[in-house]
Write a structure and sequence with these properties.
The chain contains 6 helices and no strands. 24% of the residues are buried. Helix content is 85%, strand content 0%. It has one domain. By secondary structure, the chain is mostly helical.
């Protein structure tokens, strides 16, 4: 689950960099028209909400693990994703680069917290990590 989230975050970052480098968002267009007229922007938005859903799922799955920091790292993942989405909407509406920076800061927070979740899972459940690695090596 966490590895899937990291892959989603990596794809989201790549699409976002592509948007930043090659697409100029018109400042006067409403959000809906941007989604319908710029396919890469639509992909970026859909990936963002998929990441949000995955973050909520991660939090739900880890919340019952009391006595471990895993669930608090999952809370930080969700907060970081929400910050990134909020900053992305603000950047889309204003064009202010500070919001783009905030979006990237939320992304980095989500990546670091997701890596912390993975670390804690592997540290606390080494047999599960070993069996997953064995299954992956067979394919």
């Amino acid at each position: 689950m966490s590895i899937g989230l990291l892959i989603q975050l990596a794809l989201e970052n790549l699409v976002g960099i592509g948007l930043n480098l090659y697409v100029v968002l018109p400042s006067s267009s409403p959000f809906g028209s941007l989604v319908s007229t710029i396919p890469s922007f639509a992909v970026h938005v859909v990936l963002g909400f998929l990441i949000l859903a995955t973050s909520v799922f991660l939090l739900v799955r880890t919340w019952s693990w009391q006595g471990t920091p895993i669930r608090w790292w999952a809370v930080l993942v969700l907060i970081s994703v929400i910050v990134a989405i909020q900053e992305g909407f603000a950047f889309t509406y204003t064009g202010n680069s500070a919001f783009s920076f905030g979006m990237e800061a939320g992304f980095i927070g989500a990546v670091l917290a997701t890596v912390a979740v993975l670390y804690e899972v592997v540290r606390r459940f080494p047999s599960a990590a070993a069996s997953t690695a064995a299954m992956a090596s067979r394919t």
